[in-house]
Design brief:
three-stranded antiparallel β-sheet, 204 residues, mainly alpha
Length: 204
Amino acid sequence: MAIAPISVQRRRSLYQAILADAKFHQQLLVFDRDLSAIARAAGCHRCGGTLHSARFARKPRGCPAGLSSDYDQRFSFCCAVDGCRKRTTPPSLRFLGRKVDLATVVTLIAAMLHGTTPARLARLSAVPGIDRRTIGRWRAWWRSTLTEGPFAAVAAAAVVPPVDIARLPVSLLERFAGDLEGKLTGLLRFLGPLTGGTAAMRAF
């Protein structure tokens, strides 16, 4: 069924509102704290040893105004056992691996611009720090995430029927329940194994 233009415009407005919502982003930080506490309580996945905090700084792009300085910290741990010292980095709803842009930005900007014309894409200067090449990389990342590698194999079994690859990430967002904030939170949790290193991927 075709989507009316007004519906598309309203959806894009909702995406933009969430990108600027510091309260929503601060809630993602709370979720990340919870995930880090679970990872720490589980101990080192290699030897079972105690984990010590070894968080590191990030310089994420796309943060709305009003976030605390804690938002720039990536939760991570290091095993306290001599001879092990294995790092454990829990999943995150804020960061997609090594990507500089926030997970919300990579998801919602790519979704907002799905199906856009070349002329509209050329006007991306309205989004600071994002150009056509960046959007192209994000679209390629979404396609490869759901079609290649170990995560794709397990995700395919979890998402039935399969999502429309050409419409990613919109087609994946639509699989989660609730309002847009709930859908986005669900999607970011779903991608957790991609953000938490090898230990998170094995758990998935």
